[in-house]
Design brief:
Blueprint lengths: L10 H20 L16 E2 L6 E2 L6 E6 H6 L15 E2 L12 E2 L14 E5 L2 E2 L12 E8 L13 E7 L7 E9 L3 E13 L3 E12 L4 E2 L9 E14 L2 E14 L5 E5 L4 H5 L2 H14 L3 E2 L6 E18 L2 E17 L11 H11 L3 E10 L2 E18 L4 E21 L2 E9 L6 E3 L3 E21 L4 E24 L11 H6 L5 E23 L4 E12 L2 E2 L13 E2 L2 E16 L2 E21 L36 E20 L4 E17 L5 H6 L9 E2 L1 E11 L5 E13 L2 E3 L2 E3 L2 E13 L4 E8 L7 E8 L4 E6 L4 E9 L1
Parallel strand pairs: 6-9, 13-17
Antiparallel strand pairs: 1-2, 3-8, 4-5, 6-7, 8-9, 10-11, 10-44, 11-12, 12-14, 14-15, 15-18, 16-43, 18-19, 19-21, 20-23, 21-22, 22-25, 23-24, 25-26, 26-27, 27-28, 28-31, 29-30, 31-32, 32-33, 33-34, 34-36, 35-38, 36-37, 37-40, 38-39, 40-41, 41-44, 42-43
């Protein structure tokens, strides 16, 4: 697992990388230039756009995994989280539900709370997606590409972990399309399709695509609300292609809507001593956890009626103009409107009668006190934001095509739409009843936090690749970025109880501090800038062997925490930018063992991160006998006022933890053993260290920071393999394609707990062109062994006293029928 405070990279990792690179050296000897090839079997060439132009993946100096349209279908990828099982080295477990994915590559991610820039950015049609509610509907995709390592010179926003590129299918100049229907377990019903419609022959074409997906929840809810982890999504996309000689324009209008009863959170561990003991409810919680464990992770007893809703509108316009064969201009405009609203039962538990709380209430209200209910952690998040972005590129070549160059500029602005973001996470909240007129119902705390964030990013960049020789090229990129944000923070005057509607007010009320609806409001501003760069050498040793080495300096912006802090927490209102120095070496080779084509791609990476941003959980006032001192008290009070009302939202803050490093090996091996049999093995093996922990000014935080690990969901090893067997079926069908997918991950670290290791097996069989018709039929079984496995953590806090996990789906199966025209 992750080693802390040490700098050891692990002997096993060094030995493994050295051995793999040595093996790649032997590949060079096996595939000399000009060698005659007598075999007829080949491996398919894969095209990528990792460097903003289409080229073969085997000659791209970056670790990239690609799934094309056929690969996405045969892997039965229908959601963002499905992608994790097809690509090693990424984590997509979700942060607050499937509609709010948390992308993790090489230990880099975004903070779980606060206003943080993601370390891994997803792109839809080359437009960066918002930080919240960024799930991309998986239908009618041309391909999905996963780029690993710091990005920024060529892609939109700066990132320190990587980028995920979702490429929707472009219109064609022919009347064609498909209709696809799926029926599956838990009453799954999915209907999707697309049609290309030529409008002006070879000039203008339109593509219309849609997807309707329903599935009942596979988690039985014996508490409030409906069954959990259901699917109810609707998606529509209209794409328009105009192609006039040197001018090419693609316009995309995309709508997506999701509405379900929420997702399952299952408590697994109770820690003592903790805040549960201080409230006197530890025994009751342990009994509930034991009861739910007996039911299993697919039974939930929700404390309230949960929900998860996401509505998004996306507009993309890509314009490319060729001045001549050596010079072209590209502009990519994006507009996105997000309306995300989810209310999860964060702890997975119900409500409790705390004897400690009731004693205090009885003392305060005497005989007028009636009853009380105390929750551990409940939440609701509403995010209504709009984002515009624009990227302009001028590219060309010079010196008799020896130099390919690109210069450009990028702008992004994300701002509130009406209410911005409301986070109503409550920790140890009590709802009490009295007989006092006008005070029949009260709350100990729980006002929602309102975030009106305007975030802007500006950048200029240049990139070039110069051929030093026919085989050796020098690649250099540089980028200057300015990021700034202005945030108005405030707390509801009206307390928030579980998933009830918060008070709605606009940004003007926040900025003016309207006392009728808001308390503790203020404006927080911050900015950062950086010069990021990359320098690499690319060597096309032979037609079949490519090697590269690259050194990069990356960066991601800082952010802010909420609510408005006081006392010893004031200095933690904002956190600064994180930077990384990284190098990567790799060898990509196609070669042969006898007549068998084999492809081996191997890369070693190492990155050092300064001012690493990490999440601190459990930053709440938990002791009932706290005495205000004006200073933080370790284990008792984070700011010195002994009030939970202005503690960090959800008990968590993002801060600069220290200096860290990550190293590892990515490898992919595939072989076509026979004409119909192809096998592949992909793996990521990595190690992470905390090299230096920064001394903190706050004694509460300083006492806890030794347990803070700034690597959310870091896994030391992930293995993914696939076996595909295809055979002609004579009169039955043109081809039968069988796919077996195996996925295995080690335990994932999050805070002071681990998400246990697990492995999965998925199967799929497809008959193409059944009985010489245009009909394809597929049958799939996901999670063949019906494993019960956790995919992420909801609560992981020894201070609060609880671990609660989000569990993956059970065995799912179904049949898929597609008609192509």
């Amino acid at each position: 697992m992750i080693s802390t405070i040490t700098r050891s990279k692990g002997f096993y990792l060094k030995a493994l990388s050295a051995g793999i690179l040595a093996a790649s050296g032997s590949v060079l000897a096996q595939a000399p230039a000009g060698q005659a090839k007598t075999e007829t079997l080949t491996l398919e060439e894969v095209l990528v756009s990792a460097r903003r132009t289409e080229e073969g993946a085997q000659s791209v100096p970056v670790t990239v995994d690609v799934l094309d349209a056929n690969g996405l279908r045969e892997a039965t990828i229908v959601s963002t989280t499905d992608l994790q099982q097809a690509v090693p080295g990424i984590f997509l477990g979700g942060s607050g539900g499937p509609q709010n994915p948390l992308y993790v590559i090489r230990g880099q991610s975004k903070g779980l709370i606060g206003t943080t820039s993601p370390a891994v950015v997803s792109y839809y049609a080359e437009v960066p997606q918002p930080s919240w509610g960024s799930a991309v509907p998986q239908y009618d995709m041309d391909n999905i590409q996963v780029l690993k390592g710091p990005q920024g010179t060529l892609f939109g926003r700066n990132t320190t972990g990587g980028a995920i590129l979702y490429s929707p299918t472009t219109p064609l100049h022919e009347l064609s399309g498909y209709v696809d229907a799926t029926l599956g377990r838990y009453n799954q019903r999915r209907l999707q399709g697309a049609a290309n419609i030529p409008l002006i022959q070879d000039k203008v074409a339109m593509r219309v695509a849609a997807d309707l997906h329903r599935r009942e929840g596979y988690v039985k809810n014996i508490g409030e609300g409906g069954d959990l982890d259901g699917v109810d999504t609707r998606a529509f996309r209209l794409s328009l292609l105009a192609d006039f000689n040197r001018l090419r324009n693609i316009f995309i209008y995309d709508e997506f809507s999701s509405d379900n009863d929420g997702f399952n959170i299952h408590p697994v561990t109770v820690y003592e001593p903790s805040g549960l003991n201080q409230l006197g409810i530890a025994d009751d919680v342990k009994a509930d956890v034991a009861r739910l464990k007996a039911f299993g992770p697919r039974v939930n007893d929700s404390a309230f009626n949960q929900h998860e809703r996401n509505d998004r509108t996306t507009v993309v316009n890509r314009t490319e103009f060729e001045f001549n064969d050596n010079l072209s201009l590209l502009n990519i405009f994006g507009y996105q409107l997000t309306d995300l609203d989810y209310a999860p039962n964060i702890d997975g538990l119900g409500l409790y009668k705390s004897p400690v709380v009731e004693q205090g209430l009885m003392a305060a209200f005497g005989p007028t006190f009636k009853d009380s209910q105390t929750s551990i952690v409940k939440a609701r998040l509403i995010d209504k934001t709009k984002q515009i972005s624009n990227e302009l590129q001028l590219r060309g070549n010079a010196f008799e095509n020896r130099l390919d160059w690109l210069v450009g500029a990028f702008y992004l602005k994300n701002e509130p739409d009406e209410i911005g973001q409301i986070n109503a996470t409550t920790v140890f909240q009590t709802r009490y009843e009295t007989t006092i007129p006008g005070m029949e119902v009260g709350y100990t705390n729980g006002g929602a936090q309102h975030f009106f964030l305007t975030d802007e990013s500006r950048a200029v960049f240049a990139h070039g690749e110069y051929d030093l020789t026919e085989a050796l090229a020098l690649e250099v990129g540089v980028r200057y970025t300015e990021d700034e944000f202005e945030l108005c923070l405030g707390s509801d005057k009206k307390p928030q109880w579980l998933a009830s509607d918060p008070t709605y007010f606009d940004e003007g009320a926040c900025r003016s501090g309207d006392a009728s609806v808001i308390v503790n409001s203020a404006v927080v501003k911050d900015s950062s800038d950086a010069v990021t760069w990359s320098v690499g050498l690319n060597w096309q040793a032979t037609d079949d062997v490519f090697a590269y080495g690259v050194v990069r300096h990356g960066y991601r912006a800082g952010g802010a925490n909420g609510p408005i802090f006081s006392g010893d927490l004031k200095n933690y209102q904002t956190f600064t930018a994180e930077e990384v120095d990284d190098f990567e070496i790799g060898v990509k080779a196609d070669w042969h063992v006898n007549d068998i084509p084999v492809r081996t791609n191997v890369s070693y990476f190492y990155g050092e991160y300064t001012n690493a941003q990490g999440d601190l959980a459990g930053g709440v006032t938990t002791a009932r006998n706290c005495t205000p001192t004006g200073s933080a008290q370790p284990g008792v009070d984070p700011d010195g006022d002994c009030s939970a009302a202005n503690d960090p939202t959800g008990g968590a803050i993002v801060l600069n933890v220290g200096d860290t490093s990550v190293s590892g090996v990515d490898m992919a091996v595939s072989a076509r053993l026979t004409k119909g049999l192809t096998v592949s093995l992909n793996a990521t093996v990595q190690d992470a260290d905390v090299d230096k922990v920064y001394k903190q000014e706050n004694s509460y935080i300083d006492a806890k920071i030794g347990g803070v690990i700034p690597f959310l969901y870091f896994t030391n090893s992930v293995i993914q393999s696939n076996v595909n067997y295809s055979v002609p079926m004579d009169n039955i069908a043109d081809e039968l394609s069988l796919n077996l997918n195996y996925y295995k991950t080690s335990a994932a670290d999050k805070g002071d707990t681990d998400i246990p290791a697990y492995d999965l097996i998925n199967l799929r069989a497809d008959l193409y062109r059944v009985a010489s018709t245009n009909i394809d039929v597929g049958v799939f079984i996901n999670n063949v062994n019906d494993e019960e496995y956790a995919i992420s953590s909801s609560i992981s806090s020894r201070a609060l006293g609880l671990d609660s996990f989000v569990f993956g789906p059970p065995r799912l199966f179904g049949v898929d029928v597609r008609y192509t025209f």
